[in-house]
Structures are given as structure tokens and as C-alpha cells.
């Protein structure tokens, strides 16, 4: 059952109707019953009053389309191999392409997307995208892609019901057919291959890192505190594939790094406090690749050697902002 913010619901254990005020995780929602004291409730304990109705909460409309509408929000599978707000492009028959926007980051975003042909901007889609969701934007023909000069996205991160401001994201992605000459990669979020275009440029990542210790972000982080949850992933090849002895060294490193990216994405969506990456000792190449990736990941506050008494010298502990 898919719930959304603003939806009217009934509780199996509470009289009267309430409104969903926040999506905590895939199993928990926050519901308010009109007394300004919201409850965290298991999704199995609430019943939608009408899944197709337009509901309002605090004057803000939240009216997702019916499930069969391609514009409807779809939950993104955890472990998506995505770390930033991204555009996804999937090939369709007859030289057509489907464009999506994905949000693996901890906050919700209010977004607007445009396509630019020469000097003219054409609006494609806008809406609210929850943490861990992917949204259909448009179907484009090959000819339309050839005419496209850039894809422009405005995104404002926010936490439902909180008043602290967040830095907006404005990205204009220069476009040409050369961007899809490389093979697409399989994404669990779509269940199919797609090309991925991060909307956080390196300069934006640097800006996030520069602001990491500021008072502004300290207050922003209080919007949605991290859970005291520590995730753990074993990157030894025998834990990732059925026949590790048949995997070449270069392929092994690629599989291990993909597992690292999936784990980071999973931890961000779940608002985990920390993540243990068990990489072993070996020649140190995997450890170096992991540390290089962590330095480039905006939502990583710090990383250090994990508890030597438990992991020896073969694990890294990642702490998130």
C-alpha cells in the first residue's frame, strides 16, 4: 500500500480520521488526528479513506495521480546505485526515450524540469518528490533529443512540516547525443537499463562540503535527525557473487564498488547514522577506491577505521551528516 503526505486515513486503533504528515520510512508514517500531536504509525495499522481523493493539509495540496498514471510517484528500490538527485533516461522502441527524475537523498524536493531548444525553454514537469522516489517526466523522440540543447532542473530540498530553509539546486545539463553513446547500466529503481545524469555538479558538491560546518546546515540537519542505526556490508567477493573464483580482478573491483554505492544510497534513504564497509586488507586497492569515493560524497561527514577489535584493519566506518 502506497501512502502520501496529505492523505486522509483511519487507524485500526484510533477513533476518527487523521492525515499523513510525513513518510518516515517504507514501514512507518507520521499521522496527525487533529490534536497537533502526530503519531508514528506502522503502515499496516492505517487505512486510506479514499486513495484517489485530493487531500489538503495546512493549505498545501497533495494529490498524486492514480496508480496507472505514468506521472504517479513510484517507490524507488533501496540500493539504487544513486547518490545524488539525478535524471534517468531509458530507451524505448522506435527511437523513443523516457525521462525520469530520481531522489535518493534524505530530504524531499520540490522540482521543476525544462527542456531547452535553441533559446526557448519548454516546461516538462513539476511536483514534489519524496526521498527514495523516482518520477516519470516525459517521453521524447530521437528527433526531439537531437533538437535539445540542455535540460534544466530547479530543485528545492525540504522536510515536511519544518520551517528551516535549505539551499536550492539549479542545474542546466548541456545535452548532445554523445551523452548516450556509452552503454546504459541496470538500475534497480527502474528495473531496467538507463543512463544516469547527476544534477549535483562538482561545484555544488564542493559548496555542500564547504558549508558542512556552518550554523545554517547545523540547524537544517535538526529537521530530520539521523537514526541511531549502524548498517554493515561485507564486500568480500564471496558475499556478492555465487562463483567468486570465476570473476576476473578488474571485474571484482567493479562489483565491489557498485556494492559500496548501493550501500551508501541505502543508508542515505534510511537516514542511518553510520555504515561499516568491510573491505578486507589485501593490496589496499579497494580501500583506496572506497576512500576516494567517500571524499566526493557530500552527505558523508567523516570516515575512519572501524573498531579494530571486531574488524581488524579491514573495515571503514562512515558517518553521515
Account of the protein in words:
The protein has 321 residues and is of the alpha+beta class. The protein has seven helices and 21 strands. The protein has helices at residues 142-147, 202-210, 215-221, 237-240, 249-269, 285-295, 308-311; strands spanning 8-11, 17-23, 28-32, 39-42, 46-48, 55-57, 60-62, 74-75, 86-92, 96-103, 108-117, 120-129, 133-141, 150-158, 169-174, 185-187, 192-198, 227-234, 272-278, 300-305, 315-320. Strands 8-13-10-9-17-16 form a six-stranded antiparallel β-sheet. Strands 4-3-2-1-5 form a five-stranded antiparallel β-sheet, with no helix packed on it. Strands 12-11-14-15 form a four-stranded antiparallel β-sheet, with no helix packed on it.
Which key features would you list for this structure?
6-stranded antiparallel beta sheet, 5-stranded antiparallel beta sheet, 321 residues, 21 strands, alpha+beta, globular
How does the SSE layout of this entry go?
Layout: E1 8-11, E2 17-23, E3 28-32, E4 39-42, E5 46-48, E6 55-57, E7 60-62, E8 74-75, E9 86-92, E10 96-103, E11 108-117, E12 120-129, E13 133-141, H1 142-147, E14 150-158, E15 169-174, E16 185-187, E17 192-198, H2 202-210, H3 215-221, E18 227-234, H4 237-240, H5 249-269, E19 272-278, H6 285-295, E20 300-305, H7 308-311, E21 315-320
Parallel strand pairs: 18-19
Antiparallel strand pairs: 1-2, 1-5, 2-3, 3-4, 6-7, 8-13, 9-10, 9-17, 10-13, 11-12, 11-14, 14-15, 16-17, 19-21, 20-21
What's the end-to-end separation, in Å? Answer: 31 Å
Query: Within the largest sheet, what's the order of strands?
Result: 8-13-10-9-17-16
Over the alpha carbons, how many angstroms does the gyration radius reach? Answer: 21 Å
What is the element string, with H for helices and E for strands? EEEEEEEEEEEEEHEEEEHHEHHEHEHE
Residue-averaged pLDDT: 77
Uncertain stretches of 5 or more adjacent residues: 51-80, 202-208
Shape: globular
